[in-house]
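agent> Task received from the user: take the single chain below, predict its 3D structure, and emit structure tokens. No templates, no multimer pairing.
agent> Plan: (1) validate residues, (2) run structure prediction, (3) serialize to tokens, (4) report one or two observations.
agent> Step 1 OK, no nonstandard residues flagged.
tool_call: predict_structure(input=
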Amino acid sequence: MRVRRYIFPKSIQDAAITSFLMIIIPFIYYFEIFIVLPHFYELWGPEFIFHLCTGTFILWNLCSNLMAIILCDSSIKGIILPSDSSDDWKFCAVCESITPPRSWHCEVCNVCILKRDHHCKFTSCCIGHFNHRYFYVFVLYMFIATLYASIYNFYFIYDVVHFDTLGSLLKVIFPIAALFVFFTYKELYLAAALLTVFGAMFTGVLLIFHSKLILRNKTTHEKYYSKYNRGKFENMKDVFGEKWYLVWLSPLIESKLPQNGVYWITKETQKNK
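)
tool_result: status=success, residues=273
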């Protein structure tokens, strides 16, 4: 892994969103494990321990993949690039360099990113060739975590919070506002439960969107036909590497990418081999 030298957010908006994510993940973990689960299972009983281990495994993959996204450098820095241009190569006036195909300059990061997909405000960095794997696995586990939690939260809130007045219904519609106006533990529980529902919906849409892009070997900048589409299996390997079947377990598992992010195999060049 090529490690980024400067990992701190470069904008106030990025810093605020990334800080929120880093705070909310351990908060929701604590809420689910030590408040919601004891409502259904005996504390430290076999069922509780099972869900504790499952939740901790999910938390490990969330935090470790998040750190891998932030630490992994997908920029052109430190990469030797040719001085002359060729097909699909372009000149970046800001970086003062000829940049490879599929690379784009990020105005926030102020550098060209190899196979740049997008700038992620939740991680304050760009998602590119070398950290695309960690981003997708992070989104996958975030969806699993929020969906998993939402199922238990539905029954927990149904038992704890009573919706028998107009005010209680308004708290569902405006949970954060209600938290500041009528601060009780029930309002806090309701806000946390609704946050997991929104998280499941948001990450579910992201998961579907990026799954389609990966299977077609496209980035968000490549909106139409992609000449890099070499079949679903090869497309997956371009993102997850040779050990694509193991990367879901941990970001510490090394999985070498078949391409270097500078020179790309297209459908045409593959046929000529």
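agent> Step 4: summary for the user.
The chain has one domain: 12-268.
agent> Done.
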